[in-house]
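Comment thread on ticket #2218

A.B. wrote:
> Attaching the input chain for the structure job we discussed in standup.
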Amino acid sequence: MTDIDTRLKTLLSEDETAAIDKSLDETGFYAEIFNSFRGPGRAMHIMTWAGIIVFGTLLIICVVKFFGAETTRDQIFFAGAAVLLNSSQIALKLWFNMRLNRIAILREIKGLRLAVAQQG
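C.D. wrote:
> Ran it. Output below, let me know if you need it in another format.
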């Protein structure tokens, strides 16, 4: 461990360490998702999940219509639409998870700044 790591470890109290360990479990992830609908930027998070649901529904419809298509042209159209909808859904999910990571990192940085300020 470097000098800065040992300093930061001494700055963190046992309560803060327990809170960090608690936030790393899997249920903390789902709680973080639901808490994102209450905090800052909640409208954007709600619209993101609405988009994910809409794109997912349209994706399922395109797949069903793909197998029911009578011409090759219709099959190509529905297959292309399904690929685009799936890519859009993945992009929204990635954006949402990056926002969650950003919020979590900023929260940790604020905590460390507070701990360093209290020591100084």
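A.B. wrote:
> Thanks. Noting for the ticket: The first helix runs from residue 3 to 11.
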